[in-house]
Amino acid sequence: MRLGFPRALMYYEYYPFWAGFFYKLGIELVTSPSTNREIMEMGLKKAADETCLPVKILVGHLMALRDVEGIFLPRLVSMEENTYLCPKILGLPESVLYAIPEQEIYTLDVNWREGKREVLKSLLAFRTRIGRTKSQIREGFAEAQRWQKAYRRMRNAGWSFEESMECFETLAEPLKLKDLGFSRERSHRQKTADFEDGWLLDQGDITDSLEKKPRIALVGHSYLTYESYANMNLVQRLREKAQVLVVENVEATPIELQQSHLQKKIFWSHAKKIYGAGSYYVEDPEIDGLIYLSCFGCGTDSMTNDLLARRARQNQKPYLVLTLDEHTGEAGLVTRIEAFLDMLERRDDYESNLSSYGEHMDRHSSFT
Ligand code: SF4
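^ thats the input. predicted complex w/ iron/sulfur cluster below
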């Protein structure tokens, strides 16, 4: 059995989980190609105008999946306790079925809010669609969790998104990853080589020994940060001139702690993660500036962006918002990034050399 899996939206966070699940069940999971012009155009043509860019890209990927017996598109309801995904994700797959009428859709609800037991229940109910027994599903679930855990460990150990995903997509037995040394004990030499190859987004101890570059935190949805076609290679461009940290480099505990700045915890899973990581970076004196990568039409971003902008203002942290949509031009994006980086450089050189008027003249002086 060959099932298609779109390289969009939840691919960026949960592909290892589903790859492990289907691997154990002997079902081939075929991913769509990386986003390209054809995929983007198909998505833009077919998707509803009012929806956001990531959903439009998803539609393009669904249409690009050919030679498969069906498409696997789970409905992710929540990623953790007390949170939900945004309504556009909750509306999947029904909201995009019209784009692929000839394809059979395999779906189920995945609600981590209710705990592992509920997710397993949902998978057991799904077993009749794929013709597997209860015990096979249980084994598949255990394998899926192991793969997902391996993915998290790799990211925490400093593997970049591209590097870790390549392992899950190309290795027949990704759990042999252990042999590749994905633990925190990777050698300094190996990490340096990875950094120089452009694989690592950041490694504190390594970067210290490398050329001094500004440290930038890039915050936003994983499916925008790593969607290099839609964001016009933003991460690569930034890496050429700065050290880049992303939301995934912040662990769950600091994200949770940062919610204390708010009167009420954010209940959208992604918004909570982005705000928590962004707010953490705002407080980090080692971070020179924040870039919020947003997309036109995203309801939760409009709120998170404003909350983070206030935090950045309070902490005098330079803050840039880049909003992507299908009309975003490369020249405009590059100009804005360059202006931001220039400003960081000037700030570093002349920070204390300011007029005597105003409040909070700089981060280090005692007068306000
Ligand atoms: S959170 Fe925003 S970008 Fe993501 S699917 Fe929802 S509306 Fe789109």
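The two ends are 67 Å apart (CA to CA).
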